[in-house]
Amino acid sequence: MNIAMIAHDAKKKLMQNFCIAYRGILSKHTLYATGTTGRLIEEVTNLTVHKYLAGHLGGTQQMATQIEHNLIDMVIFLRDPLTPKSHEPDVNNLFQLCDKHNVPLATNLATAELLIKALERGDLDWRELFKS
Fold first, then answer.
1. Which of 17-21, 117-121, 128-132 has the lowest mean pLDDT?
2. Which regions of the chain does DSSP assign to beta strands (E)?
3. Domain residue spans in the chain?
4. Average pLDDT score, the chain
5. Partners of 77 in the beta sheet?
6. N or C: which end of the chain has fewer CB within 10 A?
7. Under 8 Å between Cβ of 60 and 94
8. The whole model's pTM is what?
9. How many other β-carbons are positioned within 10 Å of the β-carbon of residue 27?
10. Which helix (H) or strand (E) holds 109?
């Protein structure tokens, strides 16, 4: 499965720790991330991450395009809801596309852990049929 990962600055360390904790599961899938998040994940896990531009430089838009073309199966977006972002319209568009294309989306650690455990159990295998 293709897993997209994004983390706002205040959540990047949390994303790194999440990826360390679930490295075994993530290593069985193809990972995509916005630029800085992807680099930070690679540094601590040695996993290969396909990196887009930084989120605020268009990486969120690049990821949204992949979702729109049904090339992403799950999104983990650890966001900082307390700090307004200049690219908030891009973020909202990404959320709308996940809803439109039935792409599972986690925006906090609790939901991310639920999705990663579901992925491990095979609960998200329906995405393969959905893409056909």
1. 128-132
2. 2-7, 30-33, 49-51, 74-78, 105-106
3. 2-76+84-131
4. 92
5. 6
6. C
7. yes
8. 0.92
9. 13
10. helix 109-121
- H runs (alpha helix) in the chain: 12-21, 23-26, 35-45, 59-68, 88-100, 109-121, 126-131
Among 11, 32, 2, CA closest to 83: 11
Place of tokens 């690679």: 42
pLDDT of residue 44 exceeding 90: yes
Side chain identity, residue 104: P
What secondary structure letter does DSSP report for 68?
H
Which residue's structure tokens are 């992925």?
A: 119
Region of 79 on the Ramachandran plot (φ > 0 left; ψ -120 to 50 alpha; else beta): beta
Give the fold, CATH level 3, of 2-76+84-131. Rossmann fold (3.40.50)
Q: Centre a 10 Å sphere on the Cβ of residue 8 and count the other Cβ atoms it contains.
A: 21
CA angle 81–114–7, rounded 5-degree value: 35
Quote the DSSP letter at residue 57.
Answer: G
Structure tokens at 72: 């992403």
Specify burial of residue 129 (Cβ count, 10 A radius: 0-12, 13-18, 19+). Answer: exposed
